Amino acid sequence: MSTGVQSKAVTVAAGSQHADGPRLLADVGGTNARFALETAPGVIGEIRVYPGRDYPGIAEAMQQYLKDIKVSRVNHAAVAIANPVDGDHVSMTNHDWSFSIEATRRALGFDTLLVVNDFTALAMALPGLTDAQRVQVGGGSRRQNSVIGLLGPGTGLGVSGLIPADDRWIALGSEGGHASFAPSNEREDLVMRFARKKWPHVSFERVAAGPGLLLIYQALAERDGVSVPDDLESAGITQRAHDGEALALEAVNCFCGILGTFAGNIAVTLGALGGIFIGGGVVLKLGELFTKSPFRERFEAKGRFQQYLSSVPTFIITAEYPAFLGVSAILSEQLSNRANGGSSAVFERIRQMRDALTPAERRVADLALNHPRSIINDPIIDIARKADVSQPTVIRFCRSLGCQGLSDFKLKLATGLTGTIPVSHSQVHLGDTATDFGAKVLDNTVSAILQLREHLNFDHVERAIDILNGARRIEFYGLGNSNIVAQDAHYKFFRFGIPTIAYGDLYMQAASAALLGKGDVIVAVSKSGRAPELLRVLEIAMQQGATVVAITSSNTPLAKRATVALETDHIEIRESQMSMISRILHLVMIDILAVGVAIRRAVPNASADVSEAMTKVREAGDDDTGAVLDWLSHGAAGIARD
User: Fold this and answer.
1) Pairing between strand 157-165 and 168-173?
2) 149 among the known binding-site residues?
3) What is the mean pLDDT of residues 473-493?
4) Which residues does UniProt call coiled coil (predicted)?
5) pTM for the whole structure
6) Regarding the domain with residue range 461-606, which homologous superfamily does it belong to in the CATH classification?
7) Could you state, in order of their start, the residue ranges of all structural domains in the chain?
8) 28 assigned ligand-binding residue
9) Does the annotation place 596 within a ligand binding site?
10) Using CA atoms, how far apart are residues 331 and 338, in angstroms rounded to an integer?
């Protein structure tokens, strides 16, 4: 049975229906998970609240929500969560939920699952708040186009900020609530001593988040010799303060003073002349107790910087469910960025022409709209089976969209489809299924290759190709795992008629390097670029007149000493991890060099052709990249077949 609590819709600004269907929005805190459905830009409804303790994980809570609102298909979802988000795996600090973003996306069948820190999402909502959705506390006035600070005491103490950048805002991901608490008076010294009995490190979150009010009350009660009921919670202390209990009022004032100091710290740290905004439910429940508290006085109490802070306004956010507004904005921006690929145009064209298709082709269209990953991943026989059509019908459908065939359609769909290419490294965990770790390995590899394409210095590539094409002799050096790459390079390059050899043994490298001279080239492959023995060998060769092309990470000793460095940076979780991705990138780099040398040796004026190819790779959008890579690979295959 659902434990969701339905709430009224929040409509910001009416707009046309989302072409890709309704979007699921979530605001997940340490206590409750709130879900909503955005059917059009700014139109947010079906808001329901689910206690986190009632569900084993976020996927189950989402499934219950979709079941409750009777929605069978959502393509895009975004979650604001009270937790740092760094990579694929999320383990909540103030709750026992732990999950993989990618595994959750697959389990729920979403095309996109965006997970961001909740205060990053709340920060993105700030520029759109109206005067009716905020209340100013104290003086000061906002300076336009200036940094905005955000904090919010709830189950934890969230912190974020907004930095203006041209016509948009950049939200800061922060865990500032875990900064060390610094008492400002004797009463707070007492609170600190009490807190240290519980924890070795006392952060501001311990004393200025919701549970901190209870901690302060307990500390003051111990001072006064007053017993505290075991079942008393922060909400009960707030009510006691509203009822006029002296100890509760003192605890609230202490709490608000500490929060004022912390807010002032955020203001001077960020230079938040655009104001400090306070979210979370704790302050709203305090009501007038907060506005009459020492908060603003302590906010400005920064000695020589008191005048600076007196001009910075502070606001309480009164908007209902503001995190939905922010996470919606972040999701919309990401989808808009992806729309510059080809997928959104493909989806729109399918919808526009669907009614004009034959019934059989319409079934393929519906499969593409509702399950695009089936089109991308499955062979034609499975696509035809799932759509209940013949294989020629699948091809006719693709051509009716202006594509050359199924492969072309898959490319256009995959390169622009939101969420298909991860932007961060997904860590493999013990207990992952083959589906989980298989997808992570593939996604990480694809992501790394795309990052290489984005950041590779093609001028250095051209120079390396010139050096290799004119070499008298080429030797490939690689230690450990890199020796595999060196052997592969030797296998490719000896076919060009250039004397080549690969050495994976340090002594053989040293002996051979001492015999090299002008016109000889060493291609050194190294993930770390720091092995002192390899560096000494290369130094000897360069003193003899040899040239060194390095395939390594940026800003390493090897990259700095080489004649030409081809930098292949990527993400690795541990230095001890088997360097699977680095090896793939190094092999790709060898292939690029081999294609370049093959073209220059087989085609007159090939240098200009390679320059044109490199320009195509630089300028290629997602739709064109496949064609450029096909052009390169087919060209190389025709010149130097395996």
Assistant:
1) antiparallel
2) no
3) 93
4) none
5) 0.52
6) Glucose-6-phosphate isomerase like protein; domain 1 (3.40.50.10490)
7) 5-118+324-336, 130-318, 339-416, 461-606
8) yes
9) no
10) 11
